[in-house]
Design brief:
Elements: H1 5-33, H2 63-84, H3 88-96, H4 108-134, H5 138-141, H6 143-168, H7 173-197, H8 199-215, H9 219-260, H10 269-272, H11 275-300, H12 304-329, H13 336-365, H14 369-373
Helix pairs in contact: 1-4, 1-7, 1-13, 2-3, 4-6, 6-7, 7-9, 7-13, 8-13, 9-11, 9-13, 11-12, 12-13
């Protein structure tokens, strides 16, 4: 089947954007692990400049008080807006949380780590915009692809604004968690758009395999199994999402413990973690067991693309287990923390793509046998 030029162009930009978002998640993890989250106390500029300073003497003597006052003023405005919309409890937490009043010392290394993070974020904003532009041909061919790309662009803009709130609230835990959750949502939308844009090729592979299964008298049984597995895979996906959110909360506790200890005595940090860490460790066992079971069942369907995804899921899961063990038993090495987070988001992405393939397989298998047995050669109209 000849793939149209506009489809190749869209898939290139959507996949490039997803890869860039994963890179940004890795860099964001490095920012957290190095304590560079407040390397730039303002947003979108850094210490009031588009190119950050490299020495403290390039800043005014009262820079800490100036940027703290700016953050507090911005947070008060946000709190008043939220209170006016009826979110009085959230507004009170933002207004009263002590982190926003902390004065940030200038550190050139941390400033530039955070600045690189922002530059990458701005680049991704451009990538998502281009993805939305090249999705325009789908307006007449497969409108959901266009809407998915457009929604990703709009959410990326909102994510940038939310990033400014993360800075102004001095890494308020709830803001960091929402920021992470929204990043995963954008990844899911772009993956769905990229996969849907490839339906012509994907359906050809699936339909040919299903046709072979039908000749062997196994199609109905496999479709029934796939239908049940789809719900199990949804459960695995949501469990992974919840585990990532728990992980961000563990990270927030570690930040507080590290600050209280002056970023020393790393070997004692694990012992000081509370119930969130215990929950995170317990859920990790459930994530492993559920993914192993679902992966085994997917493998039995003998669909090549699903088997490749199972290998990816198990491979990422194995690396994630190793990273978790290293963190728990080797005093939380700073370099492992961003790797641990990035692997978790990769697991989420692989599960989501497997869910899309499984969903399409069920839909194809539920149709007439003649339709299933005929390769798809056109894009959805």
């Amino acid at each position: 089947m000849q793939e149209a030029a506009f489809a190749k162009r869209f898939r290139f930009w959507s996949v490039l954007t997803v890869i860039s978002i994963y890179l940004l998640i890795l860099v964001g993890g490095i920012v957290r692990a190095t304590g560079s989250g407040m390397g730039c106390p303002d947003w979108p500029r850094c210490f009031g400049q588009w190119v950050p300073p490299t020495r403290a003497d390039q800043l005014p003597a009262d820079y800490k008080q100036v940027y703290t006052a700016q953050r507090v003023a911005k947070n008060q405005k946000l709190a008043r807006t939220l209170a006016g919309l009826g979110f009085k409890q959230v507004a009170g937490e933002i207004f009263a949380h002590p982190t926003q009043y902390i004065e940030t010392d200038f550190n050139a290394t941390k400033t530039w780590i955070e600045y690189v993070n922002r530059l990458l974020g701005a680049l991704i904003g451009i990538f998502v915009f281009v993805t939305a532009v090249v999705a325009w041909p789908y307006w007449r061919r497969d409108r959901p692809v266009f809407w998915l790309a457009l929604a990703s662009w709009l959410l990326t803009g909102f994510q940038g604004w939310l990033g400014s709130l993360v800075v102004s609230t001095n890494l308020l835990p709830i803001m960091v968690t929402i920021h992470m959750g929204l990043a995963l949502l954008i990844v899911a939308l772009l993956l769905y758009a990229a996969y849907r844009a490839r339906w012509g090729k994907a359906e050809q592979e699936l339909s040919q395999q299903l046709a072979l299964e039908t000749l062997g008298g196994q199609d109905d049984e496999d479709i029934a199994i796939a239908t049940g597995l789809r719900w199990l895979l949804w459960g695995a996906l949501l469990l992974t999402f919840g585990q990532i959110i728990l992980g961000t909360q563990v990270r927030e506790e570690i930040d507080q413990i590290a600050a209280a200890a002056g970023y020393g005595q790393r070997a004692t940090w694990i012992d000081k973690l509370g119930s969130v860490f215990e929950s995170h460790r317990t859920v990790s066992a459930l994530v492993v067991l559920l993914n192993v079971y679902v992966g085994y069942q997917l493998w039995q369907l003998a669909i090549p693309v699903l088997r490749r995804l199972v290998i990816a899921i198990w491979g990422v899961l194995g690396l994630e287990m190793v990273a978790g063990i290293v963190l728990a038993y080797f005093a939380l090495p700073a370099w492992v923390q961003p790797v641990h987070l990035t692997l978790a988001t990769l697991l989420f992405g692989a599960q989501f793509v497997a869910l899309l393939v499984l969903r399409r397989m069920v839909k194809l298998g539920a149709g007439p046998t003649a339709e299933v047995a005929t390769p798809v050669t056109n894009y959805p109209r």
